[in-house]
Amino acid sequence: MKDRIIELILYKYGEISEQFQNEYKIKDVEKYGNPPVRFLISEFDDYYTKFIIRGKVINTWILDKGILSKCDDSDYEINKEVKGMFYAEGKFFFAISPDLDYVNLCFQVGPRYGFGTRYKIVIVDNNMQLVKDKDLWIS
């Protein structure tokens, strides 16, 4: 079941990345800078109900221009060079609750640009879904 939840999370991050890219294609690059097209996705082992992810990284992936690949280097650090309002590379990170009922998804693409959202993991007609529960933080 956890593997299916991770598949849903990775798919959700792909959607978020695509929406993000489409939103900033039409905005002023001179003013805002170029948004990242490469993202590090990290799964953490400690689900925390408040708003932040903590613990150790247990899985990592790279999402580069829409192509997802597993990353064996859990110590990989994103390029945090700031261009306009964006980092050169973005960061997605998540943790799944021990009971597999919730997941906290976070997205950070600049020093002051990111969000964290809690999703409820539900099964409807034998299909697992992530349903937005609440926003946890925004910057």
* Distance linking N and C termini: 32 Å
Structural class: alpha+beta
Report the helical percentage. Answer: 10-25%
Quaternary structure classification: single chain
The average pLDDT score comes to: 87
Query: Radius of gyration from the CA trace?
Result: 15 Å
The strand order across the widest sheet is 3-2-1-6-7-8-9
Order of helices and strands: HHEEEEEEEEE
Poorly predicted parts? none
Strand content: over 45%
Provide a compact summary of the structure:
This protein is an alpha+beta fold. It has helices spanning 2-25, 29-32; strands spanning 38-46, 54-64, 67-71, 82-83, 86-87, 90-96, 102-110, 113-124, 127-138.
Topology:
Blueprint: H1 2-25, H2 29-32, E1 38-46, E2 54-64, E3 67-71, E4 82-83, E5 86-87, E6 90-96, E7 102-110, E8 113-124, E9 127-138
Parallel strand pairs: 1-6
Antiparallel strand pairs: 1-2, 2-3, 4-5, 6-7, 7-8, 8-9
